[in-house]
Specification:
Elements lengths: L6 E5 L8 E6 L2 H13 L11 E7 L2 E7 L2 E4 L10 H22 L12 H10 L4 H8 L12 H9 L12 H15 L1
Antiparallel strand pairs: 1-2, 3-4, 4-5
Helix pairs in contact: 3-5
Length: about 190
Amino acid sequence: MFAAGAELSIAPAANGRPAMVIGLRCRRSLFERVLREAALARSGVTLVRGHIDDVLRSRGRAAGLRVDGRELPADLVVNASGRAERIRPWFDDHRAWDRDQVRQLAGGDVDLGRPLTSGHIVAAAEHDPSLMPVVGPYLSMTALPATLAQVEPAARAMYASGWRPPVPDSPGRDDLAELVRSTAAVTV
């Protein structure tokens, strides 16, 4: 992951606590690509595409999946039904964060007319460690995204003052579009 561009996410020291590694930061596409490459490099792993139609059961327990009419046995199948109320807040949070990042990549600024995304609040906490007692549990997923509302006013004040997080040196939107076009042309 590091060789592909992932970075450590580090919570700064606060309230007498030392700085600590809280996770790995990368785009979802990078994570999925590296995971796929690692999985395919292992013997016995087969990539199967398609819609998961049914969970196979044996004596009342999940035993595999039926995908596109094929039965795929599995050592472990996690059934997320009934857990959506715990997953949905994270899904909605990341969807809002992603939408806003796309808007900002296209040249937009932070929209102070709407609630800040969790991404804005996390960036503010990297600048102001006093926000970490609330942001840290969110980052470690021990507190739901809604808990960030406690520090949203402090983060909003930072953005309203004109502060913006540093922008990493990376290709712009036009550069990325050209990269996709040139890569697609080579693989056709």
